[in-house]
Amino acid sequence: MRKTIRFLFRCFPLLLALIAAFPLALTAQEKRIVVGLTTRTGSNSLPFVIAEERGFFKSEGLNAVVVIMQNQVVVNGVLSKNVDYGGTFSNFVGAAMAGLPVRIVMSVMDGSDHVLVTSANIKRVEDLKGKIVGISSFGGTPHSEVIAVLRKYGMNSEKDVTFLQIGGSSSRYAALDSGTIHAAMLVPPFNKIARQKGFNELVTFNDVMQIPLGGVAVQVDKIKEAPAEIVKIIRALFKGVDYIQNRKSEILSLMEKSWGVKDAEVREGMYQDLIGLYSRSGIAPDETMRNVIRLVQETRKSGGNIAVSDVVDWSFAKKAGEELKKR
User: Where are the domains of the chain?
Assistant: First the structure.
């Protein structure tokens, strides 16, 4: 007993220090908000990175940080409430369709900038037979997209190729560059870098199907408990999109320094391609959302009549847009 008392007395200063360092009551600015992404590089991630680096999260009174993790870890983190916001899309659509407590509250891009990139010796989609295709995760957007491309060209995704779960676009590019895989859906700048190194850009997914790409997903409890915070996150991302579309020189500089795109002509082409993809409303049309739902159903071999409202809640994006217009 005496040893226990002595131990508690020795620990008491440490306990006081911990309480001082981590007070129980935190303001919105002090509370650390985790935004999960699979990469900091690429057009889908860009509004999140800009919102963090240019202080748009802070301007909304939020201490939000972007944390990079595997696609499924993002989903699991949001479900377990260890991650506040998920910046991926198809996996959250699939989770919501499976009845899990998540909803997409913002669509970042109206279209996909994913490109199927292959090894130099693969000239046609049909040449992928027997080859290894890198994906972010099973059920993720790149996985669903490759299946749709293969189907369009009369191939069987279960028999004709082998899928290898690798991670975000940067990891898929590295695997392609090392020869670990023969093909992958890549986003800028990785598809452009790959092309410069002799790889082939076979198919742009927008030529196959129109789908929204990227978004913001939350656990449904957050919808009830922190609706104002969700609106602030979306407002910060709207500011990030506006910055991208109106600060061309800064974005071109970022592409060179952070993305490693040294060729000025390539940077210019990438910029012109991506600025037209960002959503001004944060709300994806029902038609394109139904395309995503159908893609996920086909990928996961699930059925049922899934309504768009089972997957999304656009009320926060609508409110965020309305509030910004009033400012």
Answer: 32-111+212-326, 115-207
